């Protein structure tokens, strides 16, 4: 009996999401976790002991000493860029947590390093942890849109306010919800998945109009409520409404096409199918007020299909070990959701619509200015606590009740 090949994997960052990665990595029989890394030595040591691996306290030590072939990066956002660039320069396969970077100029640095690494090893892999692409309802929506059943799309409206975060959450770390530490608020932390899914389903718009409210409901210096309006080249318009302040929150997506309306909410996917194209009907009917006949259909969705972080990592490992299968999200795709995030904020700062593509230097300059002029100070008692309370997995979106 042949011995199954194993990929030597290292994990950098052992906060909430890094600890989640450790849990499922330990169940995968085609990887060897050769090291875990965190600047918090106590956390690194305890995690390494639980996972029966070696603790490292700098990512350079992990790269130099562990013998890893692939790395999973789960550190604060600004560190995604230097660590991924260094990994590619060493010829390592990279799986990066969302977002790819804080701003597009950093994202392009990572992609340049990846392209350079490909010149040396065409089989080097670069993946992003956009696990929401694996959620059954979103997969079904993608399937329906790709089939063309809705015909010409005219509107997409997504109200995604099921991201409630308390003040205690924001007070739980010096870096959290600051321009210098995190680079933004809900668009940078909670909603990269939402932004990725929007562009995955509809593509990038030609124009973005954003309204971002800074610290409206929390004592933070970044955005906690955002409303955005998108105009697409094909005439479709889009709306996005997100916040970390609503409870109960909403996750409702309406997609309108000439052949009907698709609605996702409360773990149901409904297709209101028009008898004929509404655009054709509008031009040809002699009736002035009579609405077009449509049929209500609840679309069946297999909610028991495997989904989540482990599925994304399994695809990544499979690609490396066998060269087969597709990544859930290729690393270079990360620029699209970042274009939406940076574009919304730039539009809000400028108080005007911005065209896509926009000046990435202008946004980076604005971000640096916000960092250099920040006078925000977190309450000392709360900032010193640095604790994470509650079940972190409850923050994940899911297609199951």
TrEMBL record:
<feature type="domain" description="Gfo/Idh/MocA-like oxidoreductase N-terminal">
    <location>
        <begin position="7"/>
        <end position="118"/>
    </location>
</feature>
<protein>
    <submittedName>
        <fullName>Gfo/Idh/MocA family oxidoreductase</fullName>
    </submittedName>
</protein>
<feature type="compositionally biased region" description="Polar residues">
    <location>
        <begin position="383"/>
        <end position="401"/>
    </location>
</feature>
<dbReference type="InterPro" id="IPR052515">
    <property type="entry name" value="Gfo/Idh/MocA_Oxidoreductase"/>
</dbReference>
<dbReference type="Pfam" id="PF22725">
    <property type="entry name" value="GFO_IDH_MocA_C3"/>
</dbReference>
<dbReference type="InterPro" id="IPR036291">
    <property type="entry name" value="NAD(P)-bd_dom_sf"/>
</dbReference>
<dbReference type="InterPro" id="IPR055170">
    <property type="entry name" value="GFO_IDH_MocA-like_dom"/>
</dbReference>
<dbReference type="Pfam" id="PF01408">
    <property type="entry name" value="GFO_IDH_MocA"/>
</dbReference>
<dbReference type="GO" id="GO:0000166">
    <property type="term" value="F:nucleotide binding"/>
</dbReference>
<feature type="region of interest" description="Disordered">
    <location>
        <begin position="380"/>
        <end position="401"/>
    </location>
</feature>
<feature type="domain" description="GFO/IDH/MocA-like oxidoreductase">
    <location>
        <begin position="138"/>
        <end position="262"/>
    </location>
</feature>
<dbReference type="InterPro" id="IPR000683">
    <property type="entry name" value="Gfo/Idh/MocA-like_OxRdtase_N"/>
</dbReference>
């Amino acid at each position: 009996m042949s011995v199954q090949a194993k990929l030597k994997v290292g994990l950098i960052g052992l906060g909430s999401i890094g600890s989640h990665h450790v849990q499922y990595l330990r169940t995968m029989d085609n990887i060897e976790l050769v090291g875990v890394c965190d600047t918090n030595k106590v956390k690194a040591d305890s995690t390494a002991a639980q996972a029966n691996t070696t603790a490292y306290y700098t990512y350079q030590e992990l790269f130099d000493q562990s013998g890893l072939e692939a790395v999973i990066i789960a550190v604060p956002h600004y560190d995604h860029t230097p660590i991924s660039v260094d990994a590619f320069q060493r010829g390592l396969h990279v799986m990066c947590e969302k977002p790819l970077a804080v701003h597009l100029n950093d994202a392009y640095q990572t992609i340049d390093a990846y392209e350079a690494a490909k010149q040396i090893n065409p089989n080097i892999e670069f993946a992003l942890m956009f696990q929401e692409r694996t959620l059954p309802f979103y997969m079904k929506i993608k399937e329906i849109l790709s089939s063309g059943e809705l015909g010409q799309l005219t509107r997409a409206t997504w109200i995604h306010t099921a991201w409630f975060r308390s003040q205690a959450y924001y007070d739980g770390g010096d870096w959290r919800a600051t321009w210098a530490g995190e680079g933004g608020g809900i668009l940078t932390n909670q909603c990269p998945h939402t932004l990725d899914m929007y562009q995955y389903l509809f593509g990038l718009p030609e124009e973005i109009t954003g309204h971002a409210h800074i610290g409206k409901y929390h004592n933070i210096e970044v955005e906690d409520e955002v409303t955005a309006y998108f105009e697409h080249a094909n005439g479709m318009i889009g709306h996005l409404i997100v916040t970390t302040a609503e409870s109960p929150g909403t996750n409702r997506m309406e997609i309108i096409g000439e052949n009907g309306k698709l609605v996702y909410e409360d773990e149901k996917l409904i297709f209101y199918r028009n008898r004929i194209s509404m655009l054709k009907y509008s031009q040809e009917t002699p009736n002035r007020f009579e609405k077009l006949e449509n049929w209500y259909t609840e679309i069946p969705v297999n909610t028991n299909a495997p989904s989540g972080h482990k599925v994304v990592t399994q695809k990544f490992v499979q690609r490396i070990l066998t060269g087969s299968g597709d990544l859930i999200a290729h690393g270079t795709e990360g620029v699209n959701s970042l274009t939406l995030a940076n574009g919304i904020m730039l539009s809000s700062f400028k108080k005007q619509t911005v065209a896509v593509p926009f000046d990435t230097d202008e946004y980076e300059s604005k971000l640096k200015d916000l960092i250099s002029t920040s006078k925000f100070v977190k309450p000392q008692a709360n900032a010193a606590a640095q604790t994470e309370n509650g079940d972190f997995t409850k923050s994940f979106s899911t297609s199951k009740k």
